[in-house]
Amino acid sequence: SDQVYDERIQQAKDRLSQELVIMGHHYQRNEVIRFADFTGDSLELARIAERQKEARYTVFCGVHFMAETADILTDDDHIVILPDMKAGCSMADMADIDELEEAWEVMQEEWGDTIIPVTYVNSTAAIKAFVGRHGGTTCTSSNASGVLKWAFSRKKRILFLPDQHLGRNTAFSMGIPLEQMGIWNPIQGDWEEIKGSMEDIRVLLWKGHCSVHTKFTVDQIKRVREQDPETKVIVHPECTFDVVQNADENGSTSYIIQQIKNAPAGSKWAIGTEVNLVQRLAENHPEQQIQLLSRTMCPCLTMNRIDRPHLLWALESLVEGQPVNQVSVDPETTYWSRKALERMLSIV
Ligand code: 13P
Ligand code: SF4
């Protein structure tokens, strides 16, 4: 039963004591996140991983790219475990290193040495390493504009991957018009859309997206406002351009949490992000009226794969001294992806 699982998880945690750190992303289920020593958005969790010096093990309750990032940023002998290896991120899977090498070549031919690559942390370690090797960096949804500003101080053009929406929304908020953004289709290995002239292009958007956040629509915003004009709409910048433009506010997971925390009692919100987080916010803030922007649930299925049985299995494997599901990035990839991540951590 759930109670037996909870007891055994707690026992394993107690046995491992200082040797273990459990990290939990805000999109995790309640049943899992309650055991986390640290919770956060992806930037906060990366910063926490960087500081882990005492513990031998991190059990990462999140998705694969986050566990890779933790492995890259911790010492070589630190072991990072992902309780379910099937907890990937469909957006990260949309940028393949071979596709990137091919795209980079085409772009170099067009624009020579005027491009700097920036990857959203929602990408594989191989992509991060490519970016590190080419003088670029990573970003998260909470520091994207600071990172793009830094990148524009170095080069005229930015290749942004894998999320076209975060790239477009952030660049637009910095004053770059849509005509100065092109979309690269990695599957066709060709441009999908270039509105202005090639010379004027400033941002090269990789055609990737988040299947959870792109489910929010402008119609949903209209419906909420028709029902109650006082309800504020706040969405994650992985939502489409139109949704972000029509929302009252947009920001990273932590930004959304902060805005709700700071709002006066009686505030009304419709939130466009992962449903576990929205439900938790509603539970933690009964003094406010909080609803999910869409009528249908929109869980991140891979985040939700981490449940009690997987967490217990991972912890007990450590107690037994035979770790399962270790996420381990090879030394060469670690070297370059770490450069990319460290650049980000020093910029913002
Ligand atoms: P945050 O950077 O806001 O934690 O988002 C991570 C993520 O996967 C959003 O879908
Ligand atoms: Fe990836 Fe979207 Fe899930 Fe975030 S919510 S982990 S971007 S699929």
Automatic annotation (TrEMBL):
Gene3D superfamilies: NadA-like. Iminosuccinate binds at H25, S42, Y120, V121, N122, S141, H236, P237, E238, T253. One of its GO terms (molecular function) is quinolinate synthetase A activity. It catalyses: iminosuccinate + dihydroxyacetone phosphate = quinolinate + phosphate + 2 H2O + H(+). Its cofactor is [4Fe-4S] cluster. InterPro entries: NadA (IPR003473), NadA_sf (IPR036094), Quinolinate_synth_A_type3 (IPR023515). The keyword Phosphoprotein does not apply. Transmembrane segments: none annotated. [4Fe-4S] cluster binds at C89, C210, C300. NCBIfam families: nadA, PRK09375.2-1, PRK09375.2-4. HAMAP family: NadA_type3. This is Quinolinate synthase. The gene is nadA.
